[in-house]
Fold each of these.
Amino acid sequence: SPWRALLQRALDANAHLKHSTFFQLATVGAAGRPANRTVVFRGFQEQCDKIQINTDARSNKIGEIREWPLGEICWYFTDSWEQFRISGIIDVIDGSSLDPAKLQQREKAWFASSVKSRSQYLGQSPGVPVANDDHIKDVHIDPSAGPVDAYCLLTLDPEKVDYVNLKSNQRLMFTRTQEGDEFNDWMAEKVSP
C-alpha cells in the first residue's frame, strides 16, 4: 500500500530515536468515552498491512475493544516532522481464539518480543491496587515457553490513513475502497494540511 512506504521511510529516518516505535492507540472506552494509551509498534502482520500490538489480556481495553472494535493510531515522528493517523478495525487474538492461523500469529509475535517484555505478563493484572511493592520482584520466564494466558496480540487493520508532513507542508489521505464486505485497493488524495 502507498502509505506503508511513507511509514517505513519515517521509521527508518527516526530509527535512532527509541520513542519512534511508540504511538498512541485510541479506542472507544466504557460508556462510549474515549480511551487512549501509548503502545509499542510490534511490526506488520506478514503479507498484509495489519499493525501488531502486544497487550495484557486482563486489561480493561480488551473488553472495550471487543464491544467496539474501532481504533485509531496517532504516530508522530519528531525528527522528520511526520504524523500518521491510522484508523481501522482491531482484532483481539488471545489464547481462546479458535482460528489456528491467528494462534500461530500470536505465538510468533510472542517469541519476537524480548524475554523482559514477555515477563510483564506474569505479574498482577493491570490496574489492580497493590498494598506494597512485592509485585516488582524479579519474575522469571522460560524463554522457550509459548505465550502465557495473559498475553494478547492486537492487530489493527487500516481502513484510512491521514498523513501529514510538516516540513514539506503536505497532507495525503489514503482510503481503502470497499465492495460489499471486501476491502480492495487504496485511493490517495492530496488535501490541504
Amino acid sequence: MEVEAAGTAAALPPKPQFEPLKPHEMSDGRVQFRKVSVPPHRYSPLKKAWMEIYMPVYEQMKIDIRMNLKARKVELKTRSDTPDVGNLQKCADFVHAFMLGFDVVDAVALLRLDELYVESFEIKDVKTLRGEHLSRAIGRLSGKGGKTKFAIENATKTRIVIADTKIHILGSFANIKVARDSLCSLILGSPAGKVYSKLRAVTARLAERF
C-alpha cells in the first residue's frame, strides 16, 4: 500500500509556478482614477505649492497627477509602474488635506505613514453658537497669536486647521481624540488654563502607554 501511495505521488504533475501579479494587473489592467476638487480660496496656494505636491506624488508614489483647469479639479491616475494600488488613495488623501488648509510639509506625512487620518467637524456639531458667542469660541480655540492651537498641536502631536467654523485635525487615531476633546472643551466655554492642565495629564498617560 505504501508503494502504491508513493507511486501516485510520483505521478502527480509538478506545481505550477506563477509570476506575482503586478499592481496594475490586479484590476484587469484598468487604469484607476481619483479627482479632488479645488475650492476657490485654495487655488492660489495650489499654484505656488504645485511642484512640492507634484514631486512626491509623481516621483515617489509613481502616480500621474495633473490639474484640470476647466473642471477645477486635481486628477490622479495609476501607471503601469505604480508599486501599490493603495498609493492612489494615499495621494488623493494628501491632496485633499492640502485643500483643507494643511501645509504641504504636514500633509506629505499621509504618504509616508499608514496610521494617519484627517478628521473634520464644525463648531455647531459641539454647541449651537451665534453672533459674538461664535466669534469668541473661535478666538478661544486659536488663543492670542495662535498660542492655544499651537499648544494643543505640540502636546498631542497633531496638526489643526481652523477655517471659519470648520475644524480639521491631522494625526493618529488616539492623538486626534485627545486634540478633539480639548477643542470641544474650549468651544463649550472652558478656560484655556483648565484645558492645558487636563491636556498635560492625558498626554502624560498616553506617553506611558506607548
Amino acid sequence: GLSYLGAIVTDVFQGSMRIFTKKLPHPDLPAEEKEQLLHNDEYQETMVESTFMYLTLDLPTAPLYKDEKEQLIIPQVPLFNILAKFNGITEKEYKTYKENFLKRFQLTKLPPYLIFCIKRFTKNNFFVEKNPTIVNFPITNVDLREYLSEEVQAVHKNTTYDLIANIVHDGKPSEGSYRIHVLHHGTGKWYELQDLQVTDILPQMITLSEAYIQIWKRRDNDETNQQGA
C-alpha cells in the first residue's frame, strides 16, 4: 500500500543534515545595544538535526548586464559554488517579517539517490520572476564527501554521484515548458523527452540547459560510470 511506497521513497531519497541557526539583532538598533544583545541566550547559535528529501540550491542574483548588441548576458555559476550552502561554514541570512536569522547547513547522511532543486523562481508581491543563470555541472563523478560532517565521513564509504535525470524549464515563468533528460542505464545513452517526443541528446548539451530539478545516483561499491560521453 501507500505506507510501503512511502518507505521505499524514504529509503531511496531521504538524507539528513544539521541546521545551525543564529538570531540577529534588529539592523536599526545602535551598535552598543546589538553588542549587548549578542550575549543573551536568545541570540546564541542553536542546532537541530533534520531530514531532507531534496536539497534546494540557491542561484546568485542574476545581473542584468547587456552586451554591445543590447542582448542580455546570461550569467553562469559552477555547481560547487551553489553547493557551498551545505559545507557547514557558509552562512545565509533569512528574513521573516519581524526577525532576521543566520543559518548554515551541514550534511550528515547522503541518500542512494539525491535530488537537487535549483531555485529559479522567486515570488514577488505581484508576479513570479525566473533566474536564467546557467549552472555548470559535470554529469558524472561529483564527490560530496566534503559536505559531510567529519565524524560521519568515515561511515560513508561512497560519496560520488552521477547524474541520471535533468528536468529543464524553458521560457517565461508563467507559460514556459519542460524538457526532461534521462540516462538509459543499459546503453549509457542520454535521451531528451518533451511531451511524447523522444530524441537522442549529447551529454555536453545537457549542461547548457536551464536545469531546474536533477536526480543524482550514488556509485556504490566498485561501480564505475557507464555513461557514454
